[in-house]
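User: Please predict the structure of the protein below. I'd like the answer in structure-token form so I can feed it into my own downstream comparison script.

Assistant: Understood. Taking the following sequence of 251 residues as input:
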Amino acid sequence: MNNLIEITAAEIKELADVEPKQASKRFELIANTMSDDQLVDVIEHMDIVTLTQINSHHDISCPSIMSELMTPEQIRDIVCQQPLYWEEKIKSNAEELMQHTFDFMTYLIRVQDSEEKQTAILECLAEDSAALFYLSIPFIELILGGTNADEEVINDTFDDEADEDTVGYSDWQADEEAHSLSIDDPRSLLTLIRDRAPEVEKSIKNLLRNESSGWQTIINQFASELVIQAKDKNQVTDEYAEVDDMFSFLD
């Protein structure tokens, strides 16, 4: 059985290196012939680059079995690596980037079949600075320069110590339906975060409140920082690398 898992993982990885979209479809087909436990083992045998390639090219309008079975830690690592796969038109356009990150986070979080899993993912993301940057991007305009449903300017008058509500929508209720928020509305995802993990919502808000630039500038700053951190995280850590470099002249 272990041999089957390893062969399957290797097959998908090889396909992901040349055609990530086909690798995603291949995994969905394989899912019809394996148990969830077997699929989890296949995922465990894939490196984070392969998982990121597959999820970055998955049709996010469709449910993903892989994203349902990944651990919060794997999802966090994917979020941190995903900026390496941004197209240039996304990196250079604040509104495109805001929409792209919103779509990707919606895809990863809403597909989960339990509130507990959603909460675990959000809390895991908030523990990593790069992942928190990524999670914050869809809400930068909303919190710093956007408008609410009544087209009123959102002002940051929030006091962490005095009030449990959050900047920008203190009159909102956690219930999305009460505000007729559609799934493609960033406020809907922010409300879900507030409901599942209020401390994560506060982390997003506190991160953004420390920024003094306009929302478009902040998005561009975050984008640049995320790409840099993704490249850093993508470096293979080898405890013997420094020693190897010392003797590289012998090669």
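That's the full token string. Residues 147-178, 236-251 have pLDDT under 50 and may be disordered.
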